[in-house]
Design a protein that fits this description.
By secondary structure, the chain is of the alpha+beta class. The protein is built from 3 helices and 3 strands, in the order E-H-H-E-E-H.
Length: 82
């Protein structure tokens, strides 16, 4: 099972997430409204069941805005210039 979780909730519930991962649950961590990485069990011998580009969370549009009125896309452009 692949469960989306945002970075704030991951920090707040890390021990519980670790236990679930040990039992086989996979997590996709959402940071700034976009998938950032996956947490998978260490002994997970199989590769990803689908490519990241095929994952609907990866293709999701960014949402939200900050107190300064910028969107997550604006912040991503500032933080991660190409």
């Amino acid at each position: 099972m692949n469960v989306p979780i945002n970075a704030k909730r991951l920090r707040a519930t890390l021990p519980a997430v670790v236990e679930r991962v040990r039992k086989g649950t996979r997590f996709t961590v959402i940071y700034r409204s976009r998938p950032a990485f996956q947490i998978v069990p260490v002994d997970d011998a199989g590769g990803a069941s689908m490519s990241l580009a095929d994952d609907p969370l990866y293709r999701a549009q960014p949402v939200g805005s900050s107190d300064d009125g910028r969107t997550s896309v604006d912040h991503d452009r500032i933080l991660y210039p190409r």
